[in-house]
Amino acid sequence: MKRFINGCIEIKLKVEIYGSDYVVRKNRKRYGAIDRRGSLIDRRSIDDRPDIVATRQRVGDLKADTIIGKRHKQAIVSLVERKSGFTLIKK
Asked: What pTM value is reported for the model?
């Protein structure tokens, strides 16, 4: 027997050995759905950065990068001060 519950397909299986019912749920693929993972709200483009940052004349402008590990198990964040080159790395 199949029925839809909360976007999943629920399949009821009758197992005669144990004499009980088991319920198996399978996720349903949603075609045409918009993937919203990883999107930042109010994100600004790097082109909107002030021109003085590109000249590297003032202290305090930081550049941030993330390095994602194998299978997304670990990540490293690096912050580099643009004028002096001082670097902070955090796991």
From this structure: 0.53
